[in-house]
Amino acid sequence: MMYMNNWNERFIYATFDEIKEGLTTDVYFTRTRRILEKNGLIDAVVHVEVTASKLPESYRWGVFAGLREVIKLLKGRKITLRSLPEGEIFTASDFYGIRVPVMTIEGPIGEFLELETPLLGFLASASGIATKAARVKKAAGEKIVLSFGARRQHPALAPFIEFYAYIGGADGVSAVLGAQALGIRATGTMPHSLMILFRAYKGDHTLAWIAFDEIIEKDVPRIVLADTFFDEVEESMLAADILGEKLYGVRLDTPGSRRGNFEDIIREVKWKLKARGFKDIKVIVSGGIDEERIPALVKAGADGFGVGASISTAPPIDFSMDITAVQKDGRWVPVAKRGKLSGRKEVYRCNNCLIDVVTLEGGEPPKCPKCGGEMRPLLETYIKEGVVIKEPSPAEEVRKRVLASIQKLEL
Q: Which domain holds residue 73?
């Protein structure tokens, strides 16, 4: 079914139905369908595997995410889907340098031919966002990480970004619809425009802080944006004097071109607040924050981070999908293109060493090549012959798994 869309009247994005029907595919898949149909091959049963060609920017590991989107995409198709659980840590290659299949699909090629493009897109984007969020959280340790990046991407992606940022380890998200998708409360402070309007119309921008305290629900932390008209130190002192013990924290968001040495500013704010008796007020920083900047800011005394573009525009994971076996005359025949390894495979992991080993299906489970211990299989069946038999874990459980895993890893 082809859609007649008036692109001048609608936002330029694909709907759920358009994606499910394969309309976001690359055109060579629609041409391939015609060729396969003419040659009686559209019902050929294949085994395909999804692997990461490489991880971005020399990352050592990634966080696998996007499985729940793939299940929605393939639900009802006559295929069997096996996959890593969502939130599982993965590497591009195993201990021996073999590419690790993060997902496999078996079934007639015509059932999912055009869906390869959106499937890879879901995994690439979700895993990229979750991986970056996990790296940021790893750098921040026990400090707060909030996802502030919805404004740096297409608005249709806001809930998607926030969902997978949270899965990756963010402690909160700012976009309203993203928080709804997660079943949590949106987290945020206040914009500069609030203080500007109070100064212009009321004569004093600090009245905006008082109005926030009077109007906003009492269980929302009172975090004041403290850099609108005066320097960060002076505004932080003013906020503490005005709100007193009700002040949870101050947020410093001055553009990099004006902020000077951010670490020194944080140290001065923390020191002078403490000297005035406000030792428990948190300092939250935002604006150009990523995992590389965070350690120095933590050392300077920052208590939390609002992270925007670093997470929302995270580099995608470069996944590819390849046929590695076909069913012929009732049996599986290994076959793959040049540079890929043929056959149906299993993935095993040593829980002690976090080492993976890929084997051909049907072989004996391997022992860990490092410690000699038992290894567990990683791939689980989520769809069997078109029926969803297992759902991904809830977002909160996935997040806990990620946080536990990254404690054992290095950036």
A: 16-127+315-406
Q: pLDDT digits over 70-98, tens only? A: 999 999 999 999 999 999 999 999 999 99
Domain count, the chain: 2
Report the amino acid identity of residue 1: M
DSSP string, 172-205: EE--HHHHHHHTS-------HHHHHHHHHHHS-T
End-of-domain residue from the set 287, 312, 337: 312
**Contact criterion met (CB below 8 Å) for 334 and 342:** yes
Which of 314, 273, 264 shows the shortest CA–CA distance to 291? 314
For 77, the token pair is 């198709």
Token pair recorded at residue 21:
């029907």
Q: pLDDT, tens digit, for every residue of 187-207?
A: 999 999 999 999 999 999 999
Give CA separation, 125 vs 84, 157, 234, 390, in Å: 16, 10, 41, 23
Instruction: Provide the edge-to-edge strand list for the sheet that holds 376-377.
Output: 355-360, 345-350, 376-377
Predicted pLDDT at 10: 87
Strands (E), 277-379: 282-286, 304-307, 318-328, 331-334, 345-350, 355-360, 376-377
Burial grade of 174 (CB within 10 A; 0-12, 13-18, 19 or more): buried
Could you report the per-residue pLDDT of 239-257, keeping only the tens digit for each? 999 999 999 999 999 666 5
Three-state secondary structure call for residue 80: strand
Q: How many CB atoms lie within 10 A of CB 43?
A: 13
- Tell me how far apart the alpha carbons of residues 403 and 399 are, in angstroms, rounded to a whole number: 6
Tokens representing 395 are 């977002």
Domain containing residue 240: CATH number: 3.20.20.70
* For the chain, percent of residues with pLDDT exceeding 90: 93
CA 72, 105, 354, 121 dihedral sign is negative
Q: Considering the entire predicted model, what is its pTM?
A: 0.95
d(CA 397, CA 124): 21
